[in-house]
Amino acid sequence: MDSHTAARRTLYPAIEPYESGMLDVGDGHQLHWELCGNPDGKPVVFLHGGPGGGSSPDHRRQFNPDKYKILVFDQRGCGKSTPYASLDSNTTWDLVDDLEKLRTEVAKVDKWQVFGGSWGSTLALAYAQKYPERVTELVLRGIFLFDQYELDWMYKEGGASAVYPDKFEEFLAPIPQAERGDMVEAYRKRLTSDDSGLRLAAAQAWSKWEGDIVTLLPSPDTIEHFTDPQVAVAVARIENHYMANRGWFEDGQLLRDAARLKGIKGVIVQGRHDTCTPPVAAWKLKQAWPEVELNIVPDAGHLFSEPGTTDGLVRATDKFAD
Question: Is 59 annotated in the active site?
Answer without folding.
Answer: no
